[in-house]
TrEMBL record:
<dbReference type="Pfam" id="PF00072">
    <property type="entry name" value="Response_reg"/>
</dbReference>
<feature type="domain" description="Response regulatory">
    <location>
        <begin position="4"/>
        <end position="121"/>
    </location>
</feature>
<dbReference type="InterPro" id="IPR050595">
    <property type="entry name" value="Bact_response_regulator"/>
</dbReference>
<dbReference type="InterPro" id="IPR001789">
    <property type="entry name" value="Sig_transdc_resp-reg_receiver"/>
</dbReference>
<dbReference type="InterPro" id="IPR011006">
    <property type="entry name" value="CheY-like_superfamily"/>
</dbReference>
<keyword id="KW-0597">Phosphoprotein</keyword>
<protein>
    <submittedName>
        <fullName>Response regulator</fullName>
    </submittedName>
</protein>
<feature type="modified residue" description="4-aspartylphosphate">
    <location>
        <position position="56"/>
    </location>
</feature>
<dbReference type="GO" id="GO:0000160">
    <property type="term" value="P:phosphorelay signal transduction system"/>
</dbReference>
């Protein structure tokens, strides 16, 4: 199971550069195809159905903006990001209005592209290999998408899988409770992570993306916030067609009644996850809608 990338640029050299940067960003084991212009890319989109199209703006036969407009007209479910030298803000806004999920300016770094891809790739169809809860307001994270994003960002291989519902009393204390919200600052979902999940996620991020910083409690706390922010963008808020954001976290030394009520949430309105790390240590987390608990 992997992500299908379509790289569209009239320069063969730039196609190679984008492919190499994607490999350096952690996407070397996924699938790649190329197109030299928008017209050829449209055919690839129709026949290959890529998960992510990385598109140049100025190309012969059909430009990037013309392809965006055509994809929108045809109602093709395609995620597209622009990698371009175009810097005019009105033009960039025009591209976003036409459906571009992000615009990255050339020249760009591995980190910049990775930062743009994280929310864009959340929940891509090829990663949905297990049923996940979907309500009228919210689509829960795909465990496979979370797994790939966490593993790509860190130097660890983190496998995330859906498991049968777990009783909150079986989670190892102390636990961390995180609240996720929408653009209107309303809490939409909550996640509770047992202590070992918190420790392993914090260590993975601290030793990869925060290399060189003093390894202390402050760094571990910052690392956990970064990991939870990645999980947040894997939610999809149907109302405003955006991902969620991390709002607050709380450390719990004992189970409180609000958290214990998670046990009563119907199976199709919660998501129980198991995290397995490089050393084969496994630990758990539970996600449910805010409306079930009223935080």
């Amino acid at each position: 199971m992997g992500i299908k990338f379509l790289i569209v640029d009239d320069s063969k050299a730039m196609q190679t550069i984008v492919r190499r940067i994607l490999s350096n960003a952690g996407y070397s084991d996924h699938f790649f195809k190329f197109a030299d212009n928008g017209k050829e890319a449209l055919e690839r989109i129709r026949t290959w159905n890529p998960d992510m199209v990385l598109l140049d703006w100025h190309m012969p036969e059909m430009t990037g903006i013309e392809l965006l407009q055509r994809v929108k007209e045809l109602r093709l479910e395609t995620r597209i990001g622009l990698i371009t030298a175009e810097r005019n803000q009105n033009s960039i806004q025009r591209a976003k209005d036409a459906g571009a999920m992000f615009v990255v300016n050339k020249p760009f770094t591995v980190e910049k592209l990775k930062e743009s891809l994280i929310p864009a790739l959340a929940g891509v169809s090829s990663l949905k290999d297990e049923p996940i809860p979907i309500t009228q307001e919210l689509i829960f994270p795909s465990p496979s998408a979370v797994s790939i994003l966490l593993s790509t960002i860190t130097d660890s291989k983190i496998k995330v899988s859906k498991v049968e519902p777990i009783s909150v009393e079986n989670l190892t204390l102390p636990c961390t409770l995180a609240l996720f919200g929408d653009s209107e600052k309303k809490v939409k979902a909550v996640i509770i992570l047992e202590s070992e999940t918190v420790d392993k996620l914090s260590e993975s991020f601290a030793t990869s993306i925060f290399k060189g910083e003093a390894f202390d409690d402050k760094l571990l706390a910052k690392s956990l916030m970064k990991a939870l922010s990645i999980i947040a963008v894997c939610f999809y808020n149907v109302k405003d067609s955006q991902e969620l954001s991390l709002f607050k976290t709380y450390s719990m030394q004992k189970m409180i009644s609000k958290v214990q009520r998670m046990n009563n949430v119907p199976k199709d309105e919660r998501l129980d996850l198991k995290f397995t790390f490089d050393d084969d240590i496994s630990c758990h987390a539970i996600i449910c809608l805010e409306s079930q608990n009223g935080y």
